[in-house]
Design a protein that fits this description.
Largest sheet: 2 strands, antiparallel
Structural class: alpha+beta
Shape: elongated
Distance between the termini: 22 Å
Radius of gyration: 17 Å
Mean pLDDT: 86
Bound molecules: iron/sulfur cluster
Strand content: 5-15%
Number of strands: 4
Helix content: 25-40%
Strand order of the largest sheet: 1-2
Number of domains: 2
Length: 144
């Protein structure tokens, strides 16, 4: 508890809805250390990883982004409709620092997901329980 003293906690902080909207809309910026960390985590040789999985970020030196596949981050996966990160244990810092928060447009968009899926109000507690279950991510990895 003492360690939390003085730390900023947004009043709009919310549980992650595992909607995946943030990973579909944004690309984390990577430095060379992070590129190496993800390549190592995936067991891919660094030169191959640079060539096939990343591209240079044009407006900053020594910065990279993941090559996108389709309209989202290449590591975004869905198990049924629940989003998960396929590189969760070694995801980039930008992803680690992203917190679900009602002040974010992406998370508010995620709030609409149950209604879009036809989940009734009565079913919502079960739905949120399911999202919180640790084994719902790809390989048991949580989204955030
Ligand atoms: S959390 Fe994972 S899926 Fe989402 S943007 Fe980061 S690396 Fe991609
Ligand atoms: S952080 Fe927000 S936008 Fe991203 S998956 Fe969680 S609820 Fe959705």
């Amino acid at each position: 508890m003492v360690s939390q003293l003085g730390q900023f906690q947004s009043p709009d902080r919310m549980p992650c809805l595992r909607c995946g909207v943030c990973c579909a809309k944004w690309q984390p910026l990577l430095d060379e250390e992070e590129v190496a960390m993800v390549a190592r985590g995936l067991g891919i040789p660094l030169d191959v990883f640079y060539r096939d999985h990343t591209e240079r970020y044009p407006v900053k030196a020594n910065a990279y982004v993941f090559r996108r596949t389709g309209k989202a981050c290449r590591y975004l996966r869905y198990q049924n409709v629940i989003a998960a990160c396929a590189i969760h244990p070694f995801r980039p810092e930008a992803c680690r620092n992203w917190t679900p928060d009602l002040s974010r447009r992406e998370c508010r968009e995620g709030l609409r997901l149950p209604a879009q899926l036809g989940i009734s109000e009565a079913e919502l507690p079960r739905w949120y329980e399911l999202l919180a279950a640790p084994d719902q991510g790809i390989l048991g990895m949580g989204k955030t």
